[in-house]
Amino acid sequence: MVGVEHINAPLVVDIDAHTLTEYVPAKPLESNLEVVFGSAEQGSLRARFEPCAQLNCGNTLKFPFARGAYKPTAVTIKDAQVLVAADAATETKRVVELTLDTAALGQWDYAPGDTVAILPSNAPQIVAQLLQRLNLSEQADSVCHLSLALNCAKKSAKVPGHIPATATPRELLTHCLSLHAVPQKQFLSALASCTSDSKERSFLASLSSKQGAAHYQTLILERGLCLLDLLELCTTCQPTLALLVEHLPRLLPRPYSIANSPLECSQQLRIIYSIRANKAGVTTSMLEAKRELHREKQQSVQLYIYPREPNAFRYTDQEFSGNQILIAVGTGLAPFLGFLAHKQLHKELATGQTWLYVGAKMPQAMVKQQQLLAWQKASILQSLRLCYSRHSTGEQPKYVQQLLEQDAQQLVELMQQPTTVLYVCADGAKITKCIEDGLRRCLQLGLKLDEMEATQWLKEMRAKGKYREDIWL
Ligand SMILES: Cc1cc2nc3c(=O)[nH]c(=O)nc-3n(C[C@H](O)[C@H](O)[C@H](O)COP(=O)(O)OP(=O)(O)OC[C@H]3O[C@@H](n4cnc5c(N)ncnc54)[C@H](O)[C@@H]3O)c2cc1C
């Protein structure tokens, strides 16, 4: 099994050391579902089905934040460029830019700052291993459906909405279920009941118990072990497909910021993603596999995407005459590339000041540095401040919040102007909090406020829509 701890290193957990002698396992859910393999007729009906199984669930299945009547649509990868090479020494993640041909989505108005959602799929090799464990390798591509078990007593029981009327086991595991979700205690207890080895069974049951909370905390919540890791550890655990459908949540689409101006290219858009070398995520792993296929030019490579509802984090005609303070860390620069390209294309109308602060680990990890410098030279950017957390050059600030504090006086003057909007984009609540703390200190320094007053100032800026954040959790 290839789980969360993935290909890089074998999973090492002493299951005896994580098994209690006295515990009461969580009560497992009643088993309500069963898998029924279908007739040849069911198979022939599927000729017109979408390859992405969640799209065969009918109109009742909603896609989160889908804009208007847009549905997930297959678009083609036109180009894929590595913008930043991965570097283990500085823990720099590879950063990739994908250009997508979005003609299949039809006419679609978007502004810089808007996002699209990408439908992920679980990696084929992980699915193949799981099918083997479920003893379904031979039926992996046979059509089946989920139905309520004959002995199901629960009145409210139903087949989850993200499971299509018919699908193959491979499709269900590839497109519908989140195999890397945090296993709930009832799930652990259910897995224990499918485990023949007594030590492994006790480990899972103990982990599901109230008494095993500390082990649950360290192994599941902190170390992030998921179903696949547990199956690697417990080699005699053999759950059924119905049990997985019952316990695993839906595989949900992930948002990505559009990194270009709509005026730059018709029926195309760019997204930028970073990929972790260790414990790479589901969607980013899928994107990397597709990038590789595109590179080999074996076939036209497609992704399922849909436009998401916009929010206040966007740069539209209304913002042209105002000022923008843009603050980004790492790939958080992606939406601002769209803002700046858009401003450049509206140079006569976009008369406000734009200041950009960006943090990266190393100079070579700064996304599109040459383009940023060109925008500064062309006065699209009135101020460009860059910093590097792993590249020490004497007194130079390492973090964006330090850059902000260096500029406190001028920054606060700009913040005070009625048309100024501050935009922050970073991956993770921790970085966003550090930036907020930096802004608070700027206000304290610039306006001689105490901490409470500066906090209130930021709160009011937020309420007036002058402080907008995009936090990528
Ligand atoms: C409004 C919005 C806009 C976003 N725009 C972008 C964008 O333009 N570019 C972009 O790369 N991401 C963006 N994200 C984040 C993106 O949606 C995914 O969360 C991210 O790509 C990881 O997805 P995954 O399915 O590969 O990881 P999962 O399988 O969901 O991974 C589980 C967890 O691992 C961590 N993780 C995995 N990969 C990474 C990574 N590369 N960096 C940091 N942590 C990671 C995260 O904590 C994640 O929750 C955005 C998020 C939001 C909410």
Automatic annotation (TrEMBL):
Its cofactor is FAD. Pfam families: FAD_binding_1, NAD_binding_1. Its EC number is 1.16.1.8. InterPro entries: CysJ-like_FAD-binding (IPR003097), FAD-bd_FR_type (IPR017927), Flavoprot_Pyr_Nucl_cyt_Rdtase (IPR001709), FNR_nucleotide-bd (IPR039261), NADPH_Cyt_P450_Rdtase_alpha (IPR023173), OxRdtase_FAD/NAD-bd (IPR001433), Riboflavin_synthase-like_b-brl (IPR017938). GO terms for cellular component: cytosol. Residues 70-316 form the FAD-binding FR-type domain. One of its GO terms (molecular function) is flavin adenine dinucleotide binding. Coiled coil: none annotated. Keywords: FAD, Flavoprotein, Oxidoreductase. It comes from the Eukaryota. GO terms for biological process: homocysteine metabolic process; methionine biosynthetic process. Gene3D superfamilies: NADPH-cytochrome p450 Reductase, Chain A, domain 3, Nucleotide-binding domain of ferredoxin-NADP reductase (FNR) module, Translation factors. Signal peptide: none annotated. PANTHER family: METHIONINE SYNTHASE REDUCTASE (PTHR19384:SF84), NITRIC OXIDE SYNTHASE-RELATED (PTHR19384). This is Methionine synthase reductase. It comes from Drosophila virilis. The gene is Dvir\GJ23743.
